[in-house]
Design brief:
elongated; Alpha-Beta Plaits; two-stranded antiparallel sheet; mainly alpha
């Protein structure tokens, strides 16, 4: 028996990749400047599934396409080594599965075909413009769920702990806590406390996915992961294969240790497309009969069933018609759908957006929030600006910097200052100067455009007592307003602001315009 070297080599490698992912995830954070280091999108850039889905749905190459080709090429030669040695979500699955002591043989099921059928469904939908791949891709899933769920909770817990220390009011304890908190603010915690809609739901879903490992080790990887399915197909004829020497006595140790749940001790039990190349069987074999080496032996058959494949592909195609023909999911039905600056026209945006959550994580004001069904079924968890939660900072371009697929274009500060998200409107029945003869100039004061998009008309009105009062009633200049939402965010009418922003006039659309002479649509 080997001394456990392979197991420890894999664990160290997995730990390093997970650590890099976490460090990049934490660095993907607004820290008071309009620039980032290396965001976590580096991991998404190497993802061949996201690259392929974007190519099919948007007929465009993702920014990291060449990096994804490198991983695909590595898989063709070495098999699914990424799944067994580098995937950060796979490492979390390993850690969760280690909480249970496993005895006896593992259950062997034919459910592994489900992930291939899910892959067919997603790619068939992508081929006709339905981009749902990011909802299931493991790297996008992990980045999104961590950013919008556990990470805000971690920030809240740290801030609450600091508040508790202040309430204790012990000088020595406070000094130590403040030093630790300052270190956390520089390295781990957000610039300000984030709050995201559906944060609890996203946290619960991530926890449920991880808890499946208590039923079977790496349940997600075996049965559900579409990236694993794609890498499995690419690695079916990998040169690195498992070999069993004549000394094998079929003791079953490799069966118990296999992370992929394969009946590896059987003569035809090992399937290259299902092997995670963790090499636990090699390390555990008491006879040293199992090894991995380069060989040209033929690949094993992978029978998914022609009818199943056709059904999965047909379902993916049908999902497009269902999602776009149902009025409840009409992506044009919500005028409050304010996309980030640099977002492409809605069909192209939805065809590219993989719902990774990075743009929402870096938003300076926490104004970018995940949608549920506001943008239709295909827009679930895509970003939308909610001015009552936070406005679009005039000098910020971070969301375009972190987008891995170009759904949000990277803008220069000068281009960003001219990009219209929408247009502000006044509700004169709620506005203090318009409806209540009460002076208020907050909206004009906070308007960030060089020439104020909000202007005043001095009007003499009468109060209830009949006294003449001169007030400045605000109006919106439709040619100058960029729809940043700061006027709505800062309006003193707290329950429902007297000024609100809708998507009309947005730069990305030639049709969603108010002024007939305005030709400043998407791409102009």
């Amino acid at each position: 028996m080997k001394s456990g070297m392979l197991i420890w080599a894999r664990r160290i490698t997995q730990g390093l990749f997970l650590l890099v992912f976490i460090l990049l995830f934490l660095q993907t954070e607004q820290q008071g400047a309009d620039q980032l280091g290396y965001p976590v999108k580096v991991f998404l850039d190497i993802d061949p599934l996201l690259a392929l889905a974007t190519l099919l749905s948007a007929h465009a190459l993702a920014a990291g396409f060449l990096l994804s080709l490198a991983l695909a090429g590595l898989t063709v030669v070495l098999g699914r080594v990424f799944c067994g040695w580098a995937c950060p979500l796979g490492t979390l699955h390993n850690l969760m599965g280690a909480l249970r002591r496993w005895r006896g043989p593992q259950r062997v099921r034919g459910w592994f075909r489900a992930k291939y059928l899910l892959l067919v469904f997603l790619l068939a939908g992508s081929a006709v413009g339905l981009q749902l791949t990011g909802l299931f891709d493991p790297l996008s899933l992990l980045a999104r769920h961590l950013a919008l769920g556990p990470y805000p909770a971690l920030n809240y817990a740290a801030n609450s702990a600091m508040d508790a220390v202040y309430r204790v009011d012990r000088k020595a304890l406070t000094l130590v806590a403040e030093a630790m908190f300052a270190l956390l603010k520089k390295s781990v915690l957000a610039f300000q406390q984030p709050h995201f809609a559906q944060g609890s739901l996203l946290t619960a879903l991530l926890l449920a996915i991880l808890l499946l490992n208590l039923s079977e080790r790496r349940f997600w990887c075996r049965y559900l992961c579409p990236l694993g399915a794609l890498l499995g197909l690419l690695g079916r004829r990998a040169l690195l294969k498992r070999e069993v020497a004549e000394g094998c006595n079929a003791c079953g140790v490799c069966d118990r240790e296999c992370q992929g749940g394969l009946p590896a001790s059987r003569e035809t039990g090992w399937i290259s497309s299902e092997c995670l190349y963790c090499m636990a069987c090699d390390d555990a074999c008491p006879k040293n009969a199992v090894s991995f080496g380069f060989t040209r032996q033929p690949a094993e058959a992978l029978d998914l069933g022609r009818r199943r494949v056709l059904l999965a592909g047909g379902t993916g195609l049908a999902a497009v018609a269902v999602s776009r023909a149902t009025p409840a999911f009409d992506r044009r039905a919500n005028p409050g759908l304010l996309r980030p600056p640099g977002a492409r026209a809605e069909p192209d945006f939805l065809a590219r957006c993989v719902k990774c959550g990075e743009c929402m994580k870096v938003c300076t004001t926490n104004g970018l929030q995940p949608t549920l069904l506001e943008a239709g079924l295909e827009g679930v968890w895509s970003p939308v600006l909610v001015p009552t939660r936070g406005y679009c900072e005039f000098n910020c371009t971070l969301c375009g910097q972190v987008c891995p697929t170009g759904a949000i274009q990277k803008l220069t500060p000068a281009a960003k200052s001219q990009w219209r998200i929408g247009t502000a409107m006044f509700d004169r029945g709620r506005c203090l100067p318009h409806a209540h003869a009460t002076p208020c100039i907050v909206c004009e004061e906070v308007c960030p455009t060089p020439t104020k998009a909000i202007w005043f008309e001095e009007v003499v009105v009468r109060d209830r007592a009949g006294q003449a009062v001169t007030v400045k009633q605000p109006h919106v200049d439709l040619k100058l307003c960029i729809g940043c939402g700061i006027c709505e965010a800062k309006c003193p009418i707290g329950d429902r602001p007297a000024v609100y922003v809708t998507s009309i006039g947005e730069t990305r659309s030639r049709q969603n315009q108010m002024l007939l002479e305005d030709s400043g649509g998407y791409g102009s």
